[in-house]
Amino acid sequence: MMSLKKTGLLLLPRRNNRSIKNPTTGKIALKQLAFIFLLLLIPFSVAEHANSDNTLSPAQGTSALTWPAGLPVYDHIVIVIEENKDYEEIIGNPNAPYINNVLKKNGANFTRMYGEEHYSQGNYFWLFSGANQTVGFTDQVPSEENNPNYPFKTPNLGEQLINKNLSFKGYAESLPEIGFRRNKASEGLYARKHVPWISFANVPNGTKVATSSNLRFADFPSDPSRYHTLPTIAFVIPNLDNDMHNGPIKESIPAGDRWLQKNIDPYYQWSKNHNSLLILTFDENHDRRKYLGLTNPLLDPQSCVGTGRDREFCVDLQNRIVTIFAGAHIKPGNYPEGKGITHVNILRTLEAMYGLSKAGAQQPNAAGGGITDNYISDVFETAQ
């Protein structure tokens, strides 16, 4: 069993803003402070990546990654991001038959896949740019008023694909119009915090499909005969009713699963015979205790349990989530990937496949615990 002190960096755990600071005194509660000291063992090699507000300063891109010869380079990859569910709430759940009986059964299921932090927003930035871009942990959408680096100009997946004469588009359900920048739409189901590409100055955001990476899901092809017009990499962001975010579990999981079957399965079926791939992932786990901060994938929920820390809170800290690769050239099965992977490893896989440079760096708790900052290759068959 792995003890907390052997798992590397776990920076400033927070359950929510109110539990950290007394609104009158601004002082951290003594109990919580003791908990922080218990967990805050920071190896120098890991701590050097962190800054004082517990977010990560993004690193610049490095030299291009090399993809192993013979492995597939896909014509199209569609990445769908679901919301806020533990691995155990999805895998094996009869209320998610499409995910389990189609995607998991025929795809590569990663059994040790972890989000980087709580709340949601930062995880989307990690997947897109290898850093949380110092957006903080409270899901406050970045702006010029609250972030001195906004709009961000750091390397990211969209920018690098476009610069290499490849293509990137993000399709957000309930986005009112192409290029929409405001935080909320009138119907309230669109979530700006789930579309990180809008926050980068080096990713186009015009008002037409040809000039923007910020598209509506209504712009995603509905006819399989048009799937060949998809970009090299597309992100698909269901709205809050369809990404398993809203509602009780007994309703949100079946709703999200049905949405995937209706809207994404036609692409998945097409992908198997058209050198294309579907990636299904989640942003973070359930986070029932409303912990805020970087999470620690190497933490064992059983050995973590102690005074003031039950298993539920420890599961939140580990942040284990579902990720499945399904489509052409995939070897079905369960893949632990050594000590595990994060969204950054998905990003590295995409970067290596298309000869892009590394953006950002592995989440420091993951890196401190021995999770690599490299790509995934063992799930792919040799392309014919």
CATH topology: Alkaline Phosphatase, subunit A
CA-to-CA gap between the ends? 43 Å
Q: What level of helicity do the residues show?
A: 25-40%
Strand order of the largest sheet: 6-5-7-1-8-11-2-12
Q: Please state the structural category.
A: alpha/beta
Q: CATH class, anyone?
A: Alpha Beta
The protein's oligomeric status is single chain
Please provide the ordered H/E string of secondary-structure elements.
HHHEHHEEEHHEEEHHEEHHEEEEHH
What is the assigned CATH homologous superfamily? Alkaline Phosphatase, subunit A
CATH level-two architecture: 3-Layer(aba) Sandwich
Output mean pLDDT: 87
Number of domains: 1
Q: Output the number of helix runs.
A: 13
Which of globular, elongated, flat, extended, rod-shaped describes the shape? Answer: globular
What about the largest sheet? 8 strands, mixed
Let me know the number of strands: 13
Question: Low-confidence parts lasting 5 or more residues at pLDDT below 50?
Answer: 1-54
Based on CA atoms alone, the radius of gyration comes out at 20 Å
- What proportion strand? 5-15%
Description:
With 384 residues, this protein is of the alpha/beta class. The protein has a single domain, classed as Alkaline Phosphatase, subunit A (3-Layer(aba) Sandwich), CATH 3.40.720. It has helices at 17-20, 30-39, 44-47, 87-90, 97-106, 121-129, 157-163, 249-263, 265-271, 301-304, 311-318, 343-353, 364-368, and strands at residues 76-82, 108-110, 113-114, 117-118, 168-172, 214-216, 233-237, 276-282, 293-294, 320-321, 323-327, 333-335, 341-342. The strands form three sheets. The protein has an eight-stranded mixed β-sheet. Strands 10-3-13 form a three-stranded mixed β-sheet. The longest helix is centred in the middle third of the chain and has 15 residues, at 249-263. The radius of gyration is 20 Å and the shape is globular. The N and C termini lie far apart (43 Å). The model is unreliable at 1-54 (pLDDT under 50).
